[in-house]
Amino acid sequence: MIDSYKHKGLRKKLVEGIRDKGIQDENVLKAIEKLPRHFFMDSSFLEFAYQDKPFPIASGQTISQPYTVAFQTELLKIKKGDKVLEIGTGSGYQACILIELGAKVFSIERQKKLYQKSKIFLPSIGYNPKLFYGDGYKGLPAFAPFDKILITAAAPFAPKNLIEQLKIGGILVAPVGNSDFQVMKSIVKTSENTTEEYEHGTFRFVPLLKDKADD
Ligand code: SAH
């Protein structure tokens, strides 16, 4: 795969656009500038990869809009060495952004094809998140607790067992709502049985679905 000067130039512009929309975390902006988004798309046409828009990937899913990836990542306040659980690997783009920020990433995907593709593709470009095929609603109790949990699909509610899998002081970021729109929430676990919730505007994601899809 080629990452040309043209790609790099378009990425710089994309990052300026995201900065203008309000993203301030320089480390997040740097990660987006570094990671070639066109590697993660079936069709790597420049005009699609570096527009600030979501794009269809396999199995009827989407790679999130770069601004949304930046927004969710900023809310996670990633520190080097953070253990992060992502629900919805999709293309693997968000997982690689988290790795760029120094996180140790665990990611779950319910579409077998997407899981299988990421399992081969991500190591081939030098990224090694721990990938799982399964139902993200259940989280990964065997690997808990996590410093941060990120849901990258629309959740009807923030699953309780995922909050259980957070460390005290940990943050869960999720778009919560129905299929039309969701409110971006960050939920901080303040003690074993208390949380504080913050709301950050409305977004639109593909739905978080129960169980595995075996196609
Ligand atoms: N983070 C992705 C965006 C993925 S879109 C990226 O960077 O490309 C949301 C993804 O969540 C889809 O791939 C969808 O299949 C997956 N998903 C939906 N419900 C799920 C569940 N219960 N468990 C795990 N993954 C799920």
Structure report:
Helix content is 31%, strand content 27%. It has 215 residues and is of the alpha/beta class. The protein has a single domain, classed as Rossmann fold (3-Layer(aba) Sandwich). A hairpin with a 4-residue loop joins strand 7 and strand 8 (182-191). The relative contact order is 0.13. The structure holds S-adenosyl-L-homocysteine.
* Architecture per CATH nomenclature, i.e. the level-2 architecture: 3-Layer(aba) Sandwich
Overall number of strands: 9
The CATH topology: Rossmann fold
In terms of structural class, how would the helical and strand content be classed?
alpha/beta
Question: What is the H-and-E element order?
Answer: HHHEEHEHEHEEHEEE
What spatial order of strands do you see in the largest sheet? 5-4-3-6-7-8-9
Q: Approximately what portion of the residues adopt beta-strand conformation?
A: 25-35%
Total of helices: 7
CATH-wise, what's the superfamily?
A: Vaccinia Virus protein VP39
Number of domains: 1
Give me the Rg, rounded: 16 Å
Question: Could you tell me which ligands this complex binds, including any ions or cofactors?
Answer: S-adenosyl-L-homocysteine
- Low-pLDDT stretches are none
Helix content: 25-40%
- What is the CA-CA span between the terminal residues? 28 Å
The CATH class assignment is Alpha Beta
Average pLDDT, rounded to a whole number, is 94
The gross shape turns out to be globular
Q: The biggest beta sheet, please?
A: 7 strands, mixed
